[in-house]
What we know:
The chain is α+β, with helices and mostly antiparallel strands. It folds into two domains: about 15-180, Gcn5-related N-acetyltransferase (GNAT) (Aminopeptidase); about 205-295, 3-Layer(aba) Sandwich (Glutaredoxin), CATH 3.40.30.10. Helices cover about 30% and strands about 20% of the residues. It has eight helices and eleven strands. The protein has a seven-stranded mixed sheet with strand order 1-2-3-4-5-7-6. The chain has a four-stranded mixed sheet with strand order 9-8-10-11, with helices on one face. Strand 10 (about 270) and strand 11 (about 275) form a beta hairpin. Helix 6 packs across helix 8 (about 285-295). The longest helix has 21 residues, at about 45-65. The chain starts with 15 loop residues before the first helix and ends with a helix. The chain binds coenzyme A (COA). Coenzyme A (COA) binds near residues 115, 119, 120 and 160. Coenzyme A (COA) binds near residues 107, 109, 119 and 163.
Amino acid sequence: MKTSPGVMTVSDSRSPEAQRGVVVRDVTPDLFDDLISVCSKTQLKDPVHAEGVQIKREWLTEVTRANGPIAKLAYLDGKPAAQLMFYPEDAGPQAPGRRDVLVLYCVFTGAPEDRRHGLASSLLRSFLEEVRAGKLKSVAGRRVRFIRAPVFETGEGLSMAELYGRYGFSRGPEGSFEMYREVQGTYEPPSSLKAGSTSPKAVPPTGDRRWRLLPVGRALVFYTPHCQWSYVFAERMAAVIREMSPKHEVLLVDAWRDPAAGDWPGAQAVVDGIPIYAHVAEGDGFQSEVAAVLKEGPR
Ligand SMILES: CC(C)(COP(=O)(O)OP(=O)(O)OC[C@H]1O[C@@H](n2cnc3c(N)ncnc32)[C@H](O)[C@@H]1OP(=O)(O)O)[C@@H](O)C(=O)NCCC(=O)NCCS
């Protein structure tokens, strides 16, 4: 573990986690390698994965410089083993135009053998305590109305939804793929979701001009720079589309910076203006949705 002056050790020396060798640190730039190592092991040799890591490193540098630390690391016996990432919602250029909302982006304990040692609990407790006490550096001096936490399934360990549920988070509206925890204000669901909508597929409604922005023959594939795996999956989606329709022009879109992603909330990709929602790593749902668009043509 690298030393980092001024980084706070949160675990109380008498706590069960401290006794098991768990230390929580705020992630300053000198700890970016440790942060990346929690989610990437041997994959770093793969050039696509390495590209995803580079994108994440640039994003971390930019957002940390502007906001202060946006991640916490838990070390187990000196080894970086678990991470928690967050940021003020309005830190992003495409933020929905509201203030005082904190995004808890993900919590992950990398190796199966490191799970169930209290790492995620230590991270979440540290994060929630600092939010409650107004001490989180990246929102210092500002109130936090609520925390929203996107949830997605990786099929590893305990699901994010189950973990967040244990720490007082409630589920957002069906189809929003997020949970929330109120702090000093009341939760507001994502503005793009209309009341009563059961799936992001219902938004935007048929006929909305945004459905027509993308010409036939073009596909967009979205990734977030927060996660190296997101870029890897985006490249995989692009390869699938190119293989199914070599004539399509496929563009990878950075969902943090590019407004296009906001036009199709929850979509992994868009083909001929039609959003594709299935994740490429989950069965053949992605291929089936793309095949349906290619067969039926744009609506
Ligand atoms: C959820 C996760 C972070 C938990 O990490 P962890 O370090 O093992 O968590 P902890 O040991 O601190 O346990 C946290 C709580 O969950 C419980 N828990 C952990 N794993 C569990 C399991 N497999 N089954 C049931 N309960 C479990 C613990 O008992 C503990 O409960 P408590 O707070 O009531 O005492 C880990 O399983 C994981 O990484 N899962 C994948 C999450 C994911 O997909 N993240 C996004 C990746 S990009």
